[in-house]
């Protein structure tokens, strides 16, 4: 299908004139290139506002230098400015775990890394506040969402206030914000001043003081330790985070209040999870699924990765300690209908460069589609951050039947040769033994179907570590489960005459991980004939349990002290063990093993036979990626919008 310029949301004065508009209701400023696709948040929120009957425009990647002409070119909106800082946190997007500048920006044309500032939420908001002091500014997206309360910033190595304090904006919409943004539009359009719309769910604002909090502070509110207290007491910051995470994962959450600079940051509880009909409506908006024509033939790396992928559900109940999904999307799964999924697949098959292969038919986790509690009333009372850790909840329905039905329906469509599963697979769900034998049979059928029909030669899974204590802090299953799944994977490959690899992801320097734990990881993965390359050093990102543990030195749930490798020397000493098979790493590892009293592992790693074979028969667990973090994924975690893949921690 050929699209006209007017089929995209307008980005320039000329495009407004093409539509005959002399006024705009909402102007969105995005730090990403404008890709009109349901995996890109500015497009999602823009199309949502448009569907509600309002005029909306997008200014992608405005120049923040000089005379600020990009911020002035569309004039003053009737309702508000929206800040959509990008699908990834800007600092994760720009820098590696070692704080080195990344070689490319996946969300910019031709991967240019000079198209966005650091912290665009703050930079864009401050510019707009100076130019249009009386126009409301609403923040959204992963950057503001994860910085809605006092948070640790790894790149500045400091504890930062709620981002509203630094940006000068009026309000944050946190999480997946379609409902909130439409309600704000409706209220402002009806004439309500921005200061009177404080009761909208899933928003954050600053009250002048405790007396200015609407309805007063009640028994159901949770008053957190103040920002100033957290600055002087790391244990208070850790204690705060337990409440923040719990309230992010409850169906009926409490309001959170935190004092800062004599004012009060107020976090309203989120909306209930979207219904299937609501999620379908969001995905069925009239996206062109293409980058804006202004980019012509320029390559946008993140788009190239997801252009032939389909996101089938929202939410993740894994609760991984280093992941922002639960804080942004919540743990409850909302599924798209089969009809909505098939409509999107059909649209992809009509794209001129589609060759018949879907790159991903998944979500934040590949195999959580259709899963929820048997007894929803029990879920309504639950505040566990994970439904599957430390063990799978007996109330969780782990039936893979609905997902298998989706796979079969998609694969039967004309134009589809094969659908791959690029999202991460939770093998603990596949290994779980239910009391219902039909559920167990579906899990076995799904496992075989996945391995035989949906793997492009390599299946990516994320054990993350081999040490059970580290895995406990990560909220990941025991490494014995990875071994069990690998055994099944290898057996099915033998039975089906396939020659596929399993590609494990691992993390070094996670809280609780010591150098000796990494030495054991090297030995265990060597025994499995892996040469690890899909690896990374732990990067603290705002609003995760792992980050709070790393910064404070305490487990937020027990307040017990936890060791973390923090210095460059400590982190490199752990990271080197991933690459025991590289000759240039051997000397440093041998010295480290002697220093930590584990010299007996030297022979385990480098007996003559295995060391010679390390250049030949041993499997490489991943591709050889250039310097920097070696597992960067082009995350489709959208500002205001939805997430296509789990937010990788690099």
Automatic annotation (TrEMBL):
Domain annotation Radical SAM core: ranges: 302-582
InterPro entries attached to this UniProt entry: Elp3/MiaA/NifB-like_rSAM, Methylthiotransferase_CS, rSAM, rSAM_horseshoe, rSAM_sf, UPF0313, UPF0313_C, UPF0313_N
Co-factor requirement: [4Fe-4S] cluster
Binding site for [4Fe-4S] cluster: 316, 320, 323
Alphabetical UniProt keywords: 4Fe-4S, Iron, Iron-sulfur, Metal-binding, S-adenosyl-L-methionine
Region (Disordered), start-end ranges: 613-650
SUPFAM superfamilies: Radical SAM enzymes (SSF102114)
Pfam families named in the record: DUF3362, Radical_SAM_N
CC cofactor note: Binds 1 [4Fe-4S] cluster. The cluster is coordinated with 3 cysteines and an exchangeable S-adenosyl-L-methionine.
Family: Belongs to the UPF0313 family.
HAMAP family according to UniProt: UPF0313 (MF_01251)
Name of the protein in question: YgiQ family radical SAM protein
Source organism of the structure: Xylanibacter rodentium
């Amino acid at each position: 299908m050929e699209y006209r310029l007017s089929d995209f949301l307008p980005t320039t004065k000329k495009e407004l004139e093409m539509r005959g508009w002399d006024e705009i209701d909402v102007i969105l400023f995005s730090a990403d290139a404008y890709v009109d696709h349901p995996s890109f948040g500015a497009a999602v929120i823009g199309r949502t506002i448009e569907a509600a009957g309002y005029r909306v425009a997008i200014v992608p990647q405005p120049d923040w230098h000089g005379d600020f002409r990009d911020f002035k070119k569309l004039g003053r909106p009737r309702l508000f400015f929206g800040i959509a800082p990008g699908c990834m946190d800007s600092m994760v997007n720009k820098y590696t775990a070692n704080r080195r500048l990344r070689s490319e920006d996946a969300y910019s044309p031709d991967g240019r890394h000079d198209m966005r500032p650091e912290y665009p939420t703050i930079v864009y908001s401050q510019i707009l506040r100076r130019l249009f002091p009386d126009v409301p500014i609403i923040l959204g997206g992963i950057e503001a969402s994860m910085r809605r309360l006092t948070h640790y910033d790894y790149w500045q190595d400091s504890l930062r206030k709620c981002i509203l304090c630094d940006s000068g904006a009026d309000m944050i919409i946190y999480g997946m914000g379609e409902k909130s943004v439409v309600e704000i539009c409706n209220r402002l359009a009806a004439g309500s001043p921005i200061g009177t719309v404080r009761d909208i769910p899933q928003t954050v604002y600053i009250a002048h003081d405790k007396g200015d909090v609407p309805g007063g502070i009640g028994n159901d509110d949770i008053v957190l330790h103040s920002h100033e207290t957290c600055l002087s007491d790391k244990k208070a910051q850790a204690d705060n985070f337990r409440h923040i995470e719990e309230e992010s994962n409850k169906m009926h959450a409490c309001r959170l209040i935190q004092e800062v600079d004599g004012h009060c940051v107020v976090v309203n509880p989120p909306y209930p999870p979207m219904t299937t009909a609501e999620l379908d409506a969001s995905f069925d908006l009239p996206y062109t699924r293409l980058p804006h024509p202004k980019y012509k033939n320029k390559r946008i790396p993140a788009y190239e990765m997801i252009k032939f992928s389909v996101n089938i559900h929202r939410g993740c109940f894994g609760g991984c300690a280093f992941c922002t999904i639960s804080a942004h999307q919540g743990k409850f799964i909302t599924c798209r209908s089969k009809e909505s999924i098939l409509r999107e697949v059909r649209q992809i098959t009509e794209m001129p460069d589609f060759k018949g292969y879907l790159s991903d038919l998944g979500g934040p986790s590949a195999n959580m589609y259709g899963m929820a509690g048997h007894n929803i009333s029990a879920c309504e009372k639950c505040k566990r951050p994970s439904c599957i850790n430390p063990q799978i909840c007996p109330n969780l329905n782990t039936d893979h039947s609905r997902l298998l039905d989706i796979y079969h329906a998609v694969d039967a469509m004309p134009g589809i040769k094969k659908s791959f599963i690029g999202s991460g697979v939770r093998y603990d769900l596949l290994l779980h033994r239910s009391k219902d034998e039909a559920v167990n049979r579906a899990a076995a059928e799904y496992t075989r179907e996945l391995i035989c029909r949906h793997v492009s030669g390599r299946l990516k899974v994320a054990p993350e570590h081999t040490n059970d204590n580290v895995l406990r802090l990560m909220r990941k299953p025991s490494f014995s489960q990875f071994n069990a799944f690998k055994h099944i994977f290898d057996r099915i490959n033998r039975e089906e005459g396939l020659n596929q690899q399993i590609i494990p992801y691992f993390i070094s320097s996670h809280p609780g991980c010591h150098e000796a734990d990494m030495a054991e990881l090297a030995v265990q993965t060597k025994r499995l004939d892996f040469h690890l390359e899909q690896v990374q050093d732990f990067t603290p990102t705002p609003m995760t349990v792992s980050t709070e543990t790393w910064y404070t030195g305490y487990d937020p749930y027990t307040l017990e002290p936890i060791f973390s490798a923090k210095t460059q020397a400590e982190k490199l000493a752990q990271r080197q063990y991933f690459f025991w098979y590289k000759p240039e790493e051997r000397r440093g590892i041998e010295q480290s093993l002697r220093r930590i009293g584990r010299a007996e592992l030297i022979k385990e790693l480098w007996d003559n036979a295995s060391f010679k074979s390390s250049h030949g028969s041993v499997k490489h667990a991943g591709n050889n990626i250039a310097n920097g973090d070696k597992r960067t994924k082009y995350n489709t975690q959208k500002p205001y919008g939805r997430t296509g893949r789990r937010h990788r921690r690099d």
